[in-house]
Amino acid sequence: MAKVRGAVVVENEVCKGCNLCVVACPQDVLSLNKEVNSKGYHYSYMMNPEACTGCTNCAMVCPDNCITVYRVKQANVA
Amino acid sequence: MDELQLADIIKPENKVYGKSKIMTDTPMHYCYGCSHGVVHKLIAEVIEEMNIQEDTIGIAPVGCSVMMYYYLDIDWLQAPHGRAPAVATGYKRTNPKKYVFTYQGDGDLAAIGTAETMHAVNRGENIVMIFINNAIYGMTGGQMAPTTMIGQSTSTSPHGRDVEVNGYPLKITELIAQLPGSAYVTRQSVHTPATVRKCKKAIRKAFENSAKNIGTSFIEVVSTCNSGWKLDPVESNKWMEENMFPFYPLGDIKDSVHDDVEKYSVQKNKK
């Protein structure tokens, strides 16, 4: 069975840590970082990267346009 | 098969979603979690998909989104408070092949600019009007707007909006749907991925209507103002669902072409 793997890249300096992507993620991949960026915001990061399916929900609700989503289909994975 | 590493996934050919090319690299000045950013992004994506960057003119309002011209790489005009539909009328009439849209908040469109809004729609101008309704004056510090909910506390109604003193919230989208000049009137929201996708379809339809010369397309986006409401972005979304959606229900209100003008026009006496 084919498996879909995804990854998101968050622009740390643009992210304002609004938490909307964390709530929108159906796989609980994203979380807010304990570290802060140069403006003092707890930016979003992939806490659990294996679970990401690249569904783009996080990027859809992101008000600051700082999420880019990548997706690959892995063939023949049990 | 070996497990994929992140570096194998993050490659340009695997990219499925990213920032639109129409968006500039300027970081937005909005508060964290503000709905303005999502709507800006949707407009940029629609312009990019329709390939009309050269032919689109936005009319920036007065309000938080006054500096929208920094964020979308298209031509802009900035209108005085509430007068965006009047400016858009002039631009569209002199350049009928261009796509003209206004982007206004509730203080701009539903308070000071009510007359301009109603008359532009009533004339059936072929423009797109995008109305961000967050039930408060966000930029000036959270004062009561015409669209403020009953009982909602703001800095000028600290004990909640009282109907006896302040009247009822204004459903301007329903009013506009009554006018024969409007072609497409809808109310959307951008708080979940599903509603964001629906809102994008509505914006796309509105821009397509603009080329068909069938009247004004009007999109209300019920949105949040977490700074003005004194809530965090996630709580704001919940507050909006619980308190605003019953009064401002989502969905298409009108989707039609001009009413038959000849049906209403005075018949000339035939001899």
Describe this entry's structure for a reader.
The complex is a heterodimer of chains A (78) and B (271). Chain A has 78 residues and is an alpha+beta fold. Chain A has a single domain, classed as 2-Layer Sandwich (Alpha-Beta Plaits), CATH 3.30.70. Helices cover 13% and strands 28% of the residues of chain A. Chain A is built from two helices and four strands, in the order βαββαβ. Chain A starts with a strand and ends with a strand. The model of chain A has no long low-confidence stretch (mean pLDDT 90). Chain B is α/β, with parallel strands linked by helices. Chain B has a single domain, classed as Thiamin diphosphate (ThDP)-binding fold, Pyr/PP domains (Rossmann fold, 3-Layer(aba) Sandwich), CATH 3.40.50. Chain B is built from eleven helices and eight strands. Chain B has a seven-stranded mixed β-sheet, with helices on both faces. Chain B is globular. In chain B, 47% of the residues are buried. The model of chain B has no long low-confidence stretch (mean pLDDT 91). At the A-B interface, β1, α1, α2 and β4 of A face α1, β1, α2, α8 and α10 of B. β4 of chain A pairs antiparallel with β1 (15-17) of chain B, so a sheet runs across the interface.
Task: Give the % helix of chain B.
Answer: 25-40%
Overall pLDDT metric of chain B: 91
Instruction: Briefly note the structural class of the backbone of chain B.
Output: alpha/beta
The CATH architecture of chain B: 3-Layer(aba) Sandwich
Q: For this structure, what is the CATH class of chain B?
A: Alpha Beta
Strand order of the largest sheet of chain A: 1-4
CA(first)-CA(last) distance of chain B: 88 Å
Low-confidence stretches of chain A: none
CATH overall fold name of chain A: Alpha-Beta Plaits
Radius of gyration of chain B: 20 Å
Label the overall shape of chain A. Answer: elongated
Proportion of strand residues of chain B: 15-25%
Total of helices of chain B: 11
Shape of chain B: globular
Listing every helix as H and every strand as E from the N terminus to the C terminus, the arrangement of chain B reads HEHEEHEHHEHHEHEHHEH
CATH architecture descriptor of chain A: 2-Layer Sandwich
- Derived from helix and strand composition plus strand pairing, the structural class of chain A reads alpha+beta
